[in-house]
User: What shape does this take?
Amino acid sequence: MKVLRAPFRPRGGVHPAYAKEATAGRPIVTMPPPATLMVSLAQHLGAPSKPLVKKGDAVLRGQAIAEPVGYVSTWVHAPVSGTIKSVEQRVTISGQSATVVEIAADGQDRAAEAAVPTDWTHVEPRVLVDQVLRAGIVGMGGAGFPTHVKLLPPAGKTIDTLILNGAECEPYLTADHRLMVEQAARVWEGALVLRHILAAPRLCVAVEDNKPDAIAALEQVMRGAEGDVALVVLKSWYPQGAERQLIYAVTGREVPSGGLPMDVGVLVENVGTAAAVADAVVRGQPLIERVVTVAGAAVREPRNVLARVGTPLRDVLAFCGGLTPEVGKVLCGGPMMGVAQASDDAGLAKTTSGVLALSRDQVVSFSSQPCISCGRCVRACPAGLLPCTLSEHLEAEQYDRAEQLHVLDCIECGACAYVCPARRPLVQHMRQGKARVLARRREARAKQEARA
Assistant: This one.
């Protein structure tokens, strides 16, 4: 096993305030299940899951309550034992409407029969992938792509490098940091399972250099590992944890425009996802809880919380002492890519890395001004795009031109908006523009199929 500095520096990026001090040194605290949980069936990319329960049904902790619809979808499980109160459309923490299963906990937390734990070293990879699917595991770093899909690359695509992403580059967030410090062996166990599934010759665990305690914990559990194994220490900058940027930092390979990491022989998984894979394969446990950073100037007791999926935001915040009167905004996720919340009713998702309550002093109000052509957004863009030019084309609804300028390669990291002196809503323009370009593609495909 080698410990080495990341050999490459991706383009662009910014250095926002660290803001992790309040929780980086605090151990993970387990939160008791709340009285009511709101479990979304659209916690992942792809098709929302199909409910298997109805109002009045009794469920056990770990019992499947929704099944996948199609290949890019996954299972959803009850995070507690109790009774189904409703199955209906609600607004989730993503800001989108989705089917949500409301569960009234019975206070007993009775478990369903667990899947049979596996000695994965003697099991065919395809069997292990099915266990990952049935455990409902998705990418826990934010995107939420169903993990089983990534573990089955199509014919002709060979994965030679597996990277575990422990960068956690957003300000405030320390959930992955504490997981690596406190449960490094569990993370490493999941990494070995993933390497076995993929038969990848090279395994790298990548951590930013502002987490020396996590690096030390991982180095200890990785010591003596067989094969081409490296603990890669990354330079701290944002968005170092973005998939394409991480791949370049570790391997020097660039994922082509419109391509996927598998096109350059790489697969990236978050450290939390690796831990969940270990739970599923080694312990037979589905994904029903995760570590969440609860922080911000308006949180009375910032901490990292191990909470059940579906726990309402109000309960999470109450467990951390509640909010101060100075609260100005509540976000799910980090300050750069998080989603502002209109209410505290929505439940935590499998992808929720943080709940931030910012004070009014931290929430800046401004009005957008015309672009001054300073070029700061161009220098900051890690994807090598022209955010200022794209923004103008999108405002003018020139979607064909925006597509030609690779708007779909935008990773929505927010670096452009962060540095813009004119305070232009560049990220909103990109998100809306990407959605419109994709919608136009679907419309064109539907017309073509109708003519065929």
